[in-house]
């Protein structure tokens, strides 16, 4: 982009009749050629320091530009600083120090060839140290930011591995514990059943935690979920999802002929999470409806509880945003991530009474 800007300014200089037009045309051609080279070359296939060669070519063109303008360095100085700053963002400090000699030659040689007075030549004693100092400061800051980013990447990788391992390892023993508690509850007296039921609720919470951690790990590891989208009967999709919940006081209102274009497994998770939240935090009845509205399909899960405080809504679909004694705050974040993977969006709309979680996705075509 710097070379592209320099080439355009050289063409402007020709139009303004500043300097030698033929030399300025050469400067413009060289700048535009370097810009094209910067865009077209697959630099990632070369050594990390390979693009620094563009900087050396840039210094040579800057020197030619100063000479073409008869020794006027008004444009050379700022571009020299910009080249140094660009180099500082991408290369180690040894390259910045190695640039000192070619940058000094590119600045001073045209001034000498055009017989500029000594006070003009002495400007290099100010410009070059300033350019190098700015570049070293930028390089230090950029290096710290890169180190921080790499450290965060390592932490996230460790966190993802830990969550995945925890979620997988806890499921098998948890199933055994849950089965044992159910057997004990059948043969226990009233007090024993209450104790077993309380333990079963906690095992169910741990299971939801494990499922949530697995969903988080899948979303984080892929960045953008790959979906197996196909035309799916909406009524069957909703009924299957509701069957995984308590099923009590849940009303389903879906057109039997409606087909939606979704990944059934992923979209089922959206419904399960929303219905589970409505049952857990709202009041009955919970109404699940799915209908077409123009060019979108609209899923709505409504409860008749106390609603959601206004202050909570901006962060409602964030990770660990809500949580509580029966949840960990991942459910709605997973809903949002899965909805966005379907090119849709989810919002919480106030109702009187209660709240409706509304998911809209593009309608199936044809």
Automatic annotation (TrEMBL):
It holds the Pfam family HATPase_c. Its EC number is 2.7.13.3. The chain crosses the membrane at residues 25-41, 53-74, 94-113, 120-138. Residues 165-365 form the Histidine kinase domain. It catalyses: ATP + protein L-histidine = ADP + protein N-phospho-L-histidine. It comes from the Bacteria. PROSITE patterns: HIS_KIN. SUPFAM superfamilies: ATPase domain of HSP90 chaperone/DNA topoisomerase II/histidine kinase (SSF55874), Homodimeric domain of signal transducing histidine kinase (SSF47384). It is found in: Cell membrane. Keywords: Kinase, Membrane, Phosphoprotein, Transferase, Transmembrane, Transmembrane helix, Two-component regulatory system. InterPro entries: HATPase_C_sf, HATPase_dom, His_kinase_dom, HisK_dim/P_dom, HisK_dim/P_sf, Sensor_HK_Regulatory, Sig_transdc_His_kin-like_C. This is histidine kinase. It comes from Paractinoplanes deccanensis.
């Amino acid at each position: 982009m710097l070379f592209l800007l320099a080439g355009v300014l050289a063409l402007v200089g020709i139009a303004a009749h500043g300097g030698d037009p033929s030399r300025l045309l050469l400067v413009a051609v060289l700048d535009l050629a370097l810009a094209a080279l910067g865009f077209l070359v697959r630099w990632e296939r070369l050594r990390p320091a390979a693009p620094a060669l563009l900087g050396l070519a840039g210094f040579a063109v800057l020197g030619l530009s100063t000479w073409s303008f008869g020794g006027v360095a008004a444009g050379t100085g700022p571009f020299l600083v910009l080249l140094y700053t660009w180099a500082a963002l991408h290369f180690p400090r040894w390259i910045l120090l190695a640039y000192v000699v070619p940058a000094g030659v590119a600045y001073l040689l045209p001034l000498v060839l055009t017989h500029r007075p000594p006070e003009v030549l002495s400007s290099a004693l100010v410009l070059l140290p300033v350019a190098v100092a700015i570049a070293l400061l930028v390089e230090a800051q950029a290096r710290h930011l890169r180190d921080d980013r790499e450290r965060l990447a390592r932490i996230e990788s460790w966190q993802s591995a830990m969550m995945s391992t925890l979620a997988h390892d806890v499921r098998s023993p948890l199933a055994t514990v849950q089965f044992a508690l159910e057997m004990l509850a059948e043969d226990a007296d009233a007090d024993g059943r209450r104790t077993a039921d309380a333990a079963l609720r906690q095992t169910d919470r741990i299971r939801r935690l494990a499922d949530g951690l697995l969903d988080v790990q899948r979303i984080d590891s892929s960045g953008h979920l790959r979906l197996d989208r196909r035309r799916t009967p909406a009524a069957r999709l909703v009924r299957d999802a509701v069957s995984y919940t308590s099923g009590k006081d849940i009303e389903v209102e879906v057109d039997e002929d409606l087909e939606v274009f979704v990944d059934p497994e992923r979209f089922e998770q959206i419904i399960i999470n929303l219905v589970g939240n409505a049952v857990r935090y709202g009041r009955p009845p919970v109404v699940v409806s799915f209908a077409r509205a123009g060019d979108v399909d609209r899923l709505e899960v409504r409860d008749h509880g106390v609603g959601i405080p206004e202050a909570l809504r901006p962060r409602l679909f964030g990770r660990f945003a809500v949580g509580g004694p029966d949840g960990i705050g991942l459910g709605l974040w997973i809903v949002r991530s899965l909805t966005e993977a379907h090119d849709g969006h989810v919002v919480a709309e106030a109702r009187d009474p209660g709240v409706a979680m509304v998911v809209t996705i593009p309608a199936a075509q044809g």
